[in-house]
Design brief:
This protein has about 375 residues and is mostly helical. It has one domain. The protein is built from 15 helices and 3 strands. The chain has a 3-stranded antiparallel β-sheet with strand order 1-2-3. β2 (about 290) and β3 (about 295-300) form a beta hairpin. The longest helix is centred in the middle third of the chain and has 45 residues, at about 145-190. It starts with a helix and ends in a 7-residue tail after the last helix.
């Protein structure tokens, strides 16, 4: 009863949002596609990772601080900064969405503002302090106003451009390789053989796969608000699991400083979509296997089971929390540190959910379905006579 009421409310809000998009941008029937964009991005990605590591090493050598906490902090900041830089060209090649990019950017500005208000209220403006430290290392000294302005701008750049960069990489890999995974299952259909794909999607052993089918339910010209809410919620829940391991872990509390732990969680919260979005995409394309069983088996269910469960996250938090208190850590300090991470986690989750739903969800699913059907037809089509 309650679930049905929530679903109806989300559907009404989704219709309202899409109606607003139609009034603002009535011409939204074309999706921009950059030729060979995904292949170029994937080919360049290993070099990009190498560049991140080079930046990390150079930063450590320049600072001259080789402590474990500083090594970890600079590593995280290097990857986040590099992905923000990657997000700039990716933004220029990104598919069009229902809403203009400026609307999503304004949402990122709004969420950055909320994040800063929460940090000012708690007296821990980490991002402004990070900008201040970087400028001091470079020999540039800022007053309080410029420190706040640059700190806000840096936070906004990380919030928006890093999200675009990460989603572009995930989308490129999913568009090129996900259809191949399903085609490998299709090749083994009816043979009784099982491969890595069947194991990953946790297809029960009693199911003898006969066929892989896709039933996408995505209109590329509609902003699916419910999808945005679900992506945000799952990213937030997974972030809570990560923070449970870090902020209430007694060993890490004693070894790492607060800045280092926040840098680590900031990087991890930026890259958790790599764990969440694959099974979301599998669900969106309606991928399922048919067998002799009376019901089809939807592959996204197995992919989600592979990830995590809310009860496991709650159990980890309670175990770490009790252990930390038992070892003499302050309860109030643990809670304050934990809550201080919730604001940036919520802000990044909302921005990720909006960008993914607007610019990647329908577009990525459409590409996967097209590649799968083309591959399926090419394998089923009879070969011509040899000459």
């Amino acid at each position: 009863m309650r679930a049905g009421w929530t679903s109806d409310k989300l559907e009404k809000v989704s219709d309202f949002v899409d109606d607003a998009a139609g009034r603002l941008y009535p011409r939204r029937d074309s999706i921009k596609s950059v030729p060979d964009r995904d292949r170029r991005l994937i080919r360049a990605f290993p070099y990009f990772i190498a560049l991140c590591l080079i930046l990390w090493i150079c930063s450590i050598l320049y600072l001259g601080d080789y402590s474990f906490s500083k090594l970890v902090e600079i590593l995280c900041l290097s990857f986040v900064a590099c992905f923000a830089a990657l997000g700039v060209p990716c933004l220029l090649m990104m598919d069009k969405g229902v809403f203009s990019t400026w609307v999503i950017f304004l949402l990122a500005v709004f969420m950055t503002g909320l994040l800063w208000l929460s940090e000012i209220y708690m007296g821990q403006v980490y991002y402004a302090e990070a900008i201040y430290d970087i400028m001091n290392v470079l020999g540039v000294y800022l007053d309080d106003v410029m420190q706040l302005i640059l700190g806000f701008g840096g936070t906004l750049a990380i919030m928006f451009f890093t999200s675009v960069g990460v989603l572009s990489v995930i989308g490129a890999y999913m568009r090129l390789y996900m259809a191949r995974v399903f085609l490998s299952m299709q090749r083994r259909a009816g043979t009784g053989k099982r491969g890595k794909a069947e194991k990953f999607f946790m297809v029960p052993d009693i199911i003898d796969v006969k066929e892989v089918v896709m039933e996408p339910r995505r209109d590329p010209h509609v902003f699916h608000f419910s999808t945005s809410v679900e992506v945000t919620a799952y990213l937030f829940i997974l972030g809570l699991l990560i923070s449970s391991y870090l902020f209430v872990n007694p060993l890490l509390i004693s070894v790492m400083g607060w800045h280092t732990m926040l840098a680590v969680t900031m990087m991890l919260s930026m890259f958790t979509p790599a764990l969440i979005l694959p099974w979301f995409i599998v669900r969106s394309i309606g991928a399922k296997v048919r067998s002799d069983a009376p019901r089809d088996y939807y592959l996204w269910i197995g992919a989600r089971k592979r990830l995590f469960s809310t009860f496991a996250a709650l159990g980890v938090f309670m175990m770490m929390f009790v252990l930390s208190v038992y070892l003499g850590n302050s309860v109030s300090e643990i809670i304050l540190t934990y809550v201080s991470f919730l604001a940036p986690l919520f802000a990044t989750s909302v921005v990720y959910g909006a960008i993914y739903t607007n610019n990647f969800d329908s577009q990525v699913c459409e590409s996967i379905c097209e590649n799968f059907e083309e591959g399926k037809e090419s394998r089923e089509s009879p070969r011509g006579p040899s000459t």
